[in-house]
Amino acid sequence: TVVEALDALADEVRAPVTAWEDAEEARLAQVDAMIQEIRLSAVVAPHETAAAVRERGLLVWETKLDEAVFLDRLSEAQAAHAQTVAVLRSAFQRLTQEEADKAELAALRAEREAREQREAAEAAKQASVKASAAALETYRATKGGVAVEAAPLEDVDELKAKLAELERQVSAQQ
């Protein structure tokens, strides 16, 4: 029929235009996706590290914006690119500083804990020395409730040996 023939001829004549429209639609979808991906790259999650942000920043920085692809949307893509790079640079600097601060804080806490342990050990040592010195003084003053001066002569050598041993212990603890 004449109508079918004319429709076929119209489709044939229109085919290049339809192909161009389809290609243009695909290009615009690709441009939209690329711009959206660039913008989403600027989102920095709270748990991200400086290294992860740096890596993503380098990927965005190295992204080439082809004028042949972006055409009339090149300036929009360039603006999104510049903004994302700026956001990632700022986030990288902030995260680097935060990580350095956390490391310094951990080092200070470890140093404080080590100091407290040393001080506790020194206090325990001093208490032990005082207790040993007190025991020595008590032992010097008496032997089982009997003054050393009143002890029988045969016990004097034994007392001197015990006294010398206690003095050695006190000296070793100091």
Describe the 3D structure.
The protein is an all-alpha fold and 174 residues long. The chain has 5 helices and 2 strands, in the order ααααββα. The chain has a two-stranded antiparallel sheet with strand order 1-2. The protein is rod-shaped.
In short:
With 174 residues, the protein is mainly α. Helices cover 82% and strands 2% of the residues.
* Model regions low in confidence, pLDDT < 50 over at least 5 residues: none
Q: Enumerate the strands of the largest sheet in spatial order, edge to edge or round the barrel.
A: 1-2
Number of strands: 2
- Rounded average pLDDT: 88
Number of helices: 5
Features of the shown structure:
174 residues; mainly alpha; two-stranded antiparallel ribbon; 5 helices
